[in-house]
Amino acid sequence: MSKQNIKYNSLSAYLIVFCLYTALTIILTYPWITEFNTHKLGDDIDGSMLIWNLWWVKKALTSLNTSLLFSDYIFYPIGSSLTFHTFTLLNGLIAFPFLLITKNILFIYNILTFSAFVLSGFGTYLLVNYLIKDKFAAFTSGLIFAFCPYHLVKVSFINYLSTQWLPLYILFLIKSFEEEKSKYLNIFLASLFLVFNALMCEIYGLFAAIFTLGYLIYYLKSNKDYYVRKSVLIKCLAIFSLFLLFFSPILYSMTKFLSEKGDKVLFSTLENARFESADLLAYFVPSPLHPLLGNFFSDLTQNFSGIFQETTVFPGYIVIFLTIYSLSKIKKDPLTKFWNLSLLISILLSLGPFLHIYIIELFLPFRLSIPLPYLITFYIPFLEAVRIPGRYGVMAMLFFAIIAGYALKTLFSKIRKKSILWQMLIIIIILFEYIAIPFPLISEMKIPPIYERIKNSPGDYSILHIPLGWRAKENLGYNFTRFQYYQTFHEKRILDGSLARIAKEDTDYFDRAPIIKSIISLEYGKPLDSVSIPEERKYVTEFLNFFDIRYIILDEVYERVFTHLDENSFQNLDKYVNEIFPVRLIYENTKQNRMRIKDAYEKYKKSFVLETPRKTPMREDPFYEKITSLDTTFKVYEVKRDNSSAGIMINPEAEISNLYLAKGWSEVSKKDNGIKSLNKKSLLLVRFNDVINRKIFFKASALRNFNDENFKLAINLNGYKVADILIKYGWNTYSVNLPEDFQQKGINKIEFSKIQSYQTEDIPIGFNFFEFR
């Protein structure tokens, strides 16, 4: 056969395999394909945030002076870094050109979700076929990795669903070690897929790096030749050097964030790790989504700790059999031993800090906990960022798939008669173990019609959502993540937001802000005192003008996981809006629709949320079908604007000053006669409705004398240095010109940076007032 025919046959085989994985994705997620334009796989909680990621990449790349890794369209006006958020930047970059063509962001997101299944299977097929040169075994390995229950339950989290880059990285890592002919191409592709893993999910990038270390140790131990070892070390160094080059902008942002904010953003608790650990029994219990076996084993799965999306790790009984067969039959091959050892380590790490079997943690006569390797990794920098031990299950599933490929090749080399029938039977049994048809985790993602009016209302302004909240490591208030999804449609700024990890100071800003504090108190069911409302009426216009709020939207939030507002709290919030804000009602949901919402949620709550013990199987969770299809928008108010402009005077003793004093400031101190700049950098926010030459006046003093030394203070406006000022001991008034070229319409950021020697760095600077004119 000619080389051309061999190449043609290989391409044909690849195309057939790719089409088979595509067909299996359609079948195993049915009926999603029939609702592709309007529904997404998984819930709308994290899903709304992950869809928002695509929109923000497009927004940042098409707007001037906008950072990819920082957004003030949420957490407005203070904004928040996206550096340690589950940003799925790779998906955003892939989606970007398509979002320039179509505005259907949900369709693009669904294409990316769909491709995660197909490419996970295809990538594993390429890897295993390279290792064992057996197309059937490789195809089965791809099927195992792409459609195992661990993968299917991850549909709410596209960052964890996107496992396709792991097998492709391992493939080209191995090829770069083994092949001299195309070593430069293989090194480049290995580094590229390592970057893809890190850009898609930082944890998968970390897992890929850990695998590299393990495989390098195995390879060096297996090859005694000095020149081979030297060559492999150089190749490995080249891969990581290219990775660091490609990933350096993100690494720089991470390093800067950690140096400025500290590493608490990565911190998790050991208790959380114990809760979100995989149960050893979970490796032998079918998925709770299985239409038959899920019900049969529901008494077991419902007692496992953690949420099922994080702790479902069933590889299938056929795969378990093939793994045991591999251990007993393929003992001489050192590479197979490496895969088996890697599988064992991954399983042990997924079990968390202490062994638990059917939630039992205390064993032996002395009732002792049995510590596991994860306990060590919990105290290792960056490895602690994994947070949820069950996430190591992704590597376990990949190693299960690879080992199954080896076992199938060995098994069918001994079976001559009717081998095709046996092969088909194995695939059918595996698919039966994995099946979840009709796929239950599908959410409708329609956008309420009222947002069309807001979208068409011109201007760069903000929306105040109620309930109001921020969901991240530090939660505040009640956050409805769909608001963030709606933003991808109307493209206006919102005060609330949901991110995976943020600095605590970002939520602290809103916790101090007047009026916002009252809204959150009412959300928590805490009544306001009689003084609050009259006082807040005095500065409500300043509040509205500062945030430039044009609409206030009340939504009857009903979410699957997080507590929604009770009816009394919601009515009190509506009453508060009408008492405080100058608004007019422009939309109200119908009574009939509100009754349907209430009835649907009450039935859902009784039949599923409050069911103890739970009798309804997980796959019959009515939230997806009944709740996500509801338009829960209650009322929409348009704010009556007061465009009167006046000079801006910030008195730190006034409650409203907390809007302007964004970060790095102390509480008001009568002893110090004002406020202190606590950090090396303190941030002041101020809104300018026009861009003209103006000055800032402020009264300041070093709060302790040090050899009559003056203290240097650098002042930056929107990132541009405008002055260095020497602050004396003793209260004096200072003024700084704010050049027109550095100003912007809307919120301006004025940063005060202390430039001090190590002898004076602990001496704070006090401020008494700020004025702009």
TrEMBL record:
Record has Ligase as a keyword: no
Record's keyword terms, sorted: Membrane, Transmembrane, Transmembrane helix
Highest taxon listed in the record's lineage: Bacteria
Keyword Oxidoreductase attached: no
Bilayer-spanning residue ranges: 12-33, 74-100, 107-130, 136-153, 189-220, 232-252, 307-327, 339-359, 390-408, 420-441
Name of the protein: Glycosyltransferase RgtA/B/C/D-like domain-containing protein
Organism expressing this protein natively: Candidatus Schekmanbacteria bacterium RBG_16_38_11
